[in-house]
Design goal:
- This is Pyridoxamine 5'-phosphate oxidase family protein.
- Pfam families: Pyrid_ox_like.
- Residues 5-144 form the General stress protein FMN-binding split barrel domain.
- Strands 1, 2, 3, 4, 5, 6 and 7 form a 7-stranded antiparallel β-sheet that branches.
- The chain has helices at 3-13, 54-61, 87-93, 96-102, 128-141, and strands at 18-25, 28-35, 44-50, 64-70, 73-84, 111-125, 150-155.
- The chain is an alpha+beta fold.
- It has a single domain (3-155), classed as Electron Transport, Fmn-binding Protein, Chain A (Pnp Oxidase, Chain A, Roll), CATH 2.30.110.
């Protein structure tokens, strides 16, 4: 993984509390909101779930996932998901607020972690910054930009 790409991605998602996790079900793609764990992003994203959920079963069947963030920027992270059942890791990431939200404790045997190893990320900068880029693009090339979204792709694996 390239450190500068990881730092860019960390900066883009650091203030976004809820992400949309997309998995593959028997009926097709499905997305659901997930609370991102507050850890220093190092190329892995972490989420809590329970074994009784559809997303748990879907990840066991197909590890390819996408995680989308919407904040000051729009970020789409493609990666491989893995189910982690490690009580020490669950304790490390646990927060008292989860007890009410998930109605359980970190040592619940039904509680597991989803670890998403990011492979690539795509992001769109919006707002005034993007409008300025679009303006300069038009000045330099003489061509209009279809939208004011500026898109970049980060390759996290060589």
């Amino acid at each position: 993984m390239k450190q500068n790409e990881i730092e860019t991605l960390r900066e883009l998602i650091k203030d976004v509390d809820i992400a949309m996790l997309t998995t593959l079900s028997e009926e097709g793609l499905i997305s659901r909101p997930m609370k991102t764990q507050e850890v220093e992003f190092d190329g892995d994203l972490w989420f809590f779930t329970k074994k009784e959920t559809d997303k748990y079963k879907e990840i066991l069947h197909d590890k390819d996932v996408n995680v989308a963030y919407a904040g000051k920027s729009y970020v789409s992270v493609r990666g491989q998901a893995e189910i982690i059942d490690d009580v020490n890791k669950k304790k490390e990431l646990w927060n008292k607020a989860y007890e009410k939200m998930m109605q359980t404790s970190y040592d619940d045997p039904d509680l597991v972690l989803i670890k998403v190893k990011a492979e690539a990320a795509e992001y769109w900068e919006t707002g005034n910054f993007a409008k300025k880029i679009a303006f300069f693009y038009k000045k330099m090339t003489g061509q209009s930009v279809e939208s004011t979204d500026i898109n970049e792709t980060l390759k996290l694996n060589d």
